[in-house]
Structures are given as structure tokens and as C-alpha cells.
Amino acid sequence: MSDKFELGMKVRRKVLGDAHVDRAEATKTEFDQPFQALITESAWGSVWANDRISLRERSMLTLALLAATGNFEEIPMHIRACANTGASQQDVMEVFQHVAVYCGVPRANHAIKLAKQTFEEMK
């Protein structure tokens, strides 16, 4: 495994938690192994591992981008990650208000619904 992969796995575990990563690794197959390596090295080992901005800021950016582009499936995962990155519920609401103004109320509304459900589940 490459250094980027090792770093990516370390950051991925820090942000998403061991339980999430262990579940993802347990379901990895020969078919999706190349994709898993790609995201571990690029998303986690390059982007998330870069220390120019904080993990809190990366969480906020990621949530905004997911909501803005209508990629709602990963929002709950990244809401749960906020517990590890330091992004607060107030931060998340600020993110989605920004999305509402610049990308549309329906997308922000759906993201807020998912965030509320996920925060409730996390209690």
C-alpha cells in the first residue's frame, strides 16, 4: 500500500470513526477495491489530510457541497463525522442556510431534514 493510502486510511478513521471504516472494509469486494483505493488515497490521503484548513472547515465544506449538488445519500455520514471534526450543530445550520441562499431552498430543506434525523439518532 502507498503512503497516501496509509495516510488516507488514518484520516478516514479519524473523521468517520473506526466502526464506519471497518464496516466499509468488511463489505469491500474485488469489484470495488480499486474505487475504495482511489477515494482513500485521493479524498482522504490528499484532500482531507491537507492541513491548510481544519477538519471542522472540511466538514462544513463537504456538507455544503453535498447539499448544493443534491448528493444527499452521504449527508448523514458526514453529519455523524462532525462529532469527530468539531463542526457543531450551529455550524451545520449555517452551512445549510448558505446553501439555501446560493443553491436553493429545496436542497437546503432536505439536507436539514437529514441532519435533524441524524443528530436525533446520535443522541
TrEMBL record:
One of its GO terms (molecular function) is peroxiredoxin activity. It comes from the Bacteria. PANTHER family: 4-CARBOXYMUCONOLACTONE DECARBOXYLASE FAMILY PROTEIN, CARBOXYMUCONOLACTONE DECARBOXYLASE-LIKE DOMAIN-CONTAINING PROTEIN. It holds the Pfam family CMD. Coiled coil: none annotated. This is 4-carboxymuconolactone decarboxylase. InterPro entries: 4CMD/NDH-1_regulator (IPR052512), AhpD-like (IPR029032), CMD-like (IPR003779), Decarb_PcaC (IPR012788). Gene3D superfamilies: AhpD-like. It comes from Shimia haliotis. Residues 35-116 form the Carboxymuconolactone decarboxylase-like domain.
